């Protein structure tokens, strides 16, 4: 039974990369080295060790389960393509780089982090931004919430929840936003669910998926009058359900009026990399923070999400966990550093452009169906970007 070619190739590439990095300085082990032959080693762990092909065969068996041979042929690894190999290579390289001496590690990680952050800020028109790289795409917003709490509550570091108790913080998000996001934030921040305010969307006119700005204004006023502290607003540039973009310009003005932080997420942020960007999405570049999910936008496996933000106090960013003094944590950016260089500016833009065109074509086909009754006025200016469709196309070599 053959090892899946993609899995074998990945193992080969990673193995060769390690050999190149070591610059032929690996010492050959003594042939007469003592070999372990203990009989009490449990399970399949062999005393003499196994070669890479055997281990990859075991991994493949675990991935495919116990299917019969004729049915297992349908369970092939997704073809990640060459650009995907660069992202996967980044994880192995990060582990390898982490063993360098401290000073060399510091210089290398600083370069990787500064390069990647600069490229992303330029690509997505987010001037003078800092970046936080994270595996869970909610983690960036969580750390931003901590930053804003530290900013508004001066004694938070010492007093903790006591300062929040005297003036309860409020986080606002759209009812059309991601389900479960508010509860996840409250759980991680140790806040009661009453700190989360879900803002209804327009129902009488306009989009049924855009946040009602006038109603939000009233909700904030009510909270201020009751002694609460409006803290942060989560807006959407592409809602999960219908791909609508909130009125980000008006929301930014409202946030400035109440000294609130404005965070934006959603797939339409990808279109910031294109030559033409609708004004509704372009307004996201003036917001306090945005989260980019480059993995699904560019068809890259195992790359982190990125939250770009602007804040003047590095000590508060450190306290919130947005920056770290540990060089190894900065290596999270390495898979992206490799992948962005491999694709290049033109390759990145081409992928996002094709995804956008596919989604517009899909939207036009949907509008021709009789059962589609929803308003499409803001989809035309801010199209739904169906990256899942594009990822399938790109993985087929299109």
TrEMBL record:
It comes from the Eukaryota. GO terms for biological process: carboxylic acid metabolic process. InterPro entries: GrpII_AminoAcid_Decarb (IPR050477), PyrdxlP-dep_de-COase (IPR002129), PyrdxlP-dep_Trfase (IPR015424), PyrdxlP-dep_Trfase_major (IPR015421). The keyword Lyase applies. Residues 27-46 are annotated as: Disordered. One of its GO terms (molecular function) is carboxy-lyase activity. Pfam families: Pyridoxal_deC. Keywords: Decarboxylase, Lyase, Pyridoxal phosphate. Residues 27-41 have a biased composition (Basic and acidic residues). Its cofactor is pyridoxal 5'-phosphate. Belongs to the group II decarboxylase family. This is Pyridoxal-dependent decarboxylase domain-containing protein 1. It comes from Mesitornis unicolor.
